[in-house]
């Protein structure tokens, strides 16, 4: 075997494997983080059927730090483990019964929320300006999750949609605090470890470039 053959063997596969291993580790770590944030337990206000938890903070952080793809996979991994029976949700909840309860819409809304946050974060980097970051994180971490959670809650419990929406406002102050924490943490992380998310252009920026070159 020649030196050239050795060089070819040492080429591309190693970085690819290393990248895959790093991605898997990050996905697992953030799934564990979301689970760990459920350890303090859940807070039920009055007769509310949906608990207030810290786990949404973990979902927001996954999107803002890992991006859309890895953030989605970390949340999906957590949900798969919950479906397998592990008590990883706040209050020690787990098993298939979770998926027929009134809070299942919020759980599934995490998948949409983490994608929205991750997609926008890639387009806010490398500068990651605070005000747009807060707006996009709120869109993903609050609006997108409520968009799935509230209608599913209303359907399962037989509650009129307007009443279910009004009832969900009890979560809003805490969710706003989570958005602020997420953005501040993510800004520090991306400053210290650039490259966790590959910056992307906004779709309309690409369109302008195409129009300019035409």
Describe this structure in words.
By secondary structure, the protein is mostly helical. The chain has one domain: Arp2/3 complex 21 kDa subunit ARPC3. The protein is 69% helix and 0% strand. It contains 9 helices and no strands. It has helices spanning 3-9, 13-36, 55-66, 68-83, 104-124, 130-157, 161-168, 172-192, 203-213. The longest helix has 28 residues, at 130-157. The protein starts with a helix and ends with a helix.
Secondary structure elements and pairings:
Blueprint: H1 3-9, H2 13-36, H3 55-66, H4 68-83, H5 104-124, H6 130-157, H7 161-168, H8 172-192, H9 203-213
Distance between the termini: 51 Å
Tell me about the largest β-sheet. Answer: none
Question: Unreliable runs, pLDDT <50, ≥5 residues?
Answer: 3-18
Specify the helix fraction band.
Answer: 55-70%
Taken together, the total number of domains comes to 1
Work out the radius of gyration. Answer: 20 Å
What percent strand? under 5%
CATH class: Mainly Alpha
Number of strands: 0
User: Can you tell me the overall shape?
Assistant: globular
* SSE series: HHHHHHHHH
CATH third-level topology: Arp2/3 complex 21 kDa subunit ARPC3
Average pLDDT over all residues: 87
- What is the SS-derived class? mainly alpha
Please give the count of helices: 9
- CATH second-level architecture: Orthogonal Bundle
Short précis:
Helices cover 69% and strands 0% of the residues.
Comma- or semicolon-separated keywords:
Arp2/3 complex 21 kDa subunit ARPC3; mainly alpha; disordered N terminus; 214 residues
